[in-house]
Amino acid sequence: MRFGAHISISGSIAKSIPRAIDLRCDTFQIFTRNPRSWVSKELTNERILEFKTNISSSDLKPVFAHMPYLPNLASPDPEMWEKSIFSLKEELNRCDLLEIPYIVTHLGSPKTTGKDKGIEKVIRSLNNAIANYEGKAIILLENTAGKNESLGSNIDDICNIITKTDVQNKLGLCLDTCHAFASGYDLRDQTVITKLIEQIDNCIGLNKLVLIHANDAKFDLGEGRDRHEHIGLGKIGEIGFKLLLKEKKLRKIPFICETPVDERRDGKGNLEYLRKLLEKAK
């Protein structure tokens, strides 16, 4: 199995590679830009070459990008919606320049307009963003914890969105363990995990599950609170991650941590913990 973490691009996007290597990552995820701004710095030829050279000399694969925080593909506000689609198109192009094969995005929130209209908006957003796109990057739709009217807490909804678009071949799924637990999927229960895998496989095919965000949860099952915790120290706990790692159908899917860094543990510590659990699970 390949394990990794979300890595800072502070100073230069190319610096993410030695940082990932220092953490003993097999794979990693980055923002290609400042995630809290609509404005992005241009990727210069020098930066692009440096990033691609560093990647090619490493064994880090695959690389994942994550969309910035501000876009909302389900927004009922026309201006926000257009800006969000433009941002997704921009990120797809940045991924192609950097030869990053996947980009993760949340679905967004329909605000007060309701789930059905929100899902319809997301489908239109994806069709629009990819309609004339000729690049190679695949968009991975990520499940959410379910608070603040955000879409995607139900895995079936995400799978159905993918099947209803005109661009299924350019879409996949990213499963966040903390978000799944927060929205009611008890990953400490083998039958829940088995049923979840079957749901994904029956709707879109398990090959569409491309990435797992491996995050423990600070809060109890079904509370809808998106607060990540160190692996094994949260409410999912060691038992939940052992069960996930026992699933042979998940063994080829990269696990990437988006866990805290504090006095208890850093990113390397969480990866070491996952590897130890994998050995116990075999």
Description:
The protein has 282 residues and is α/β, with parallel strands linked by helices. It has a single domain (3-281), classed as TIM Barrel (Alpha-Beta Barrel), CATH 3.20.20.150. The chain has helices spanning 16-22, 45-56, 78-98, 115-130, 155-164, 177-182, 190-203, 237-246, 267-281; strands spanning 3-6, 27-30, 63-66, 102-105, 138-142, 171-176, 209-213, 216-217, 228-229, 255-257. An eight-stranded parallel barrel has the order 1-2-3-4-5-6-7-10. The protein has a two-stranded antiparallel ribbon with strand order 8-9. Helix 5 (155-164) links the parallel strand 5 (138-142) and strand 6. Helix 8 crosses helix 9 (267-281). The N and C termini lie close together (12 Å).
